[in-house]
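Subject: Sanity check before I submit

Could someone independently write out the structure tokens for this chain? I want to compare against mine line by line before I put it in a report. The sequence has 192 residues.
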Amino acid sequence: MNIPNQITISRILLIPIFMAFMLIDFGWGDMTLLGATLPVAHFIGALIFIFASATDWVDGYYARKYNLVTTFGKFLDPLADKLLVSAALIILVELGFAPAWVVIVIISREFAVTGLRLVLAGEGEVVAAGNLGKIKTVTQLLAIISLLLYNMIFALIGIPFGEIMLYIALLFTVWSGWDYFYANRKGLMASK
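---
Independent answer below. Compare away.
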């Protein structure tokens, strides 16, 4: 197994650790940093999420730079991303930081686009991530990180940045999902 795939697997292995810090009360108390007061365990959990999210860029860069792109990596990398983001979004619902309906729409879009990619792959077509999909990913990560950190920095000026970014992420999630299906409608119809 090559290094990019090992990095991807490490991202998956970080998910239960991230979840533990976000969902278990370790009794470590709270901390105040940059206008936000949050449990110490949540701060550590947020740092783990940030680190795990960064590994997505690292494994992709490394795989492309050293020509280590594999079929296994093409399958595992997006799966790891979806598992990490889905876990974080569900945790945000559990903590009361995100409406369940928003998270259901976002996760449903991820399943739908993954299904589309699998159908088209069966027809020999590869669906690459488009610009809207990349914007969707960035807005989702900004929303999740901000909410996991209790709107740190923005709490100083009273702006609910995480909540705003969550709805912007929702917009790009729906838009990019529609774009994937519209752009690939002929391939999807041909697979019937």
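---
OP: Matches mine. For the report I'm noting this point. The domain at 3-190 is CATH 1.20.120.1760 (Four Helix Bundle (Hemerythrin (Met), subunit A)).
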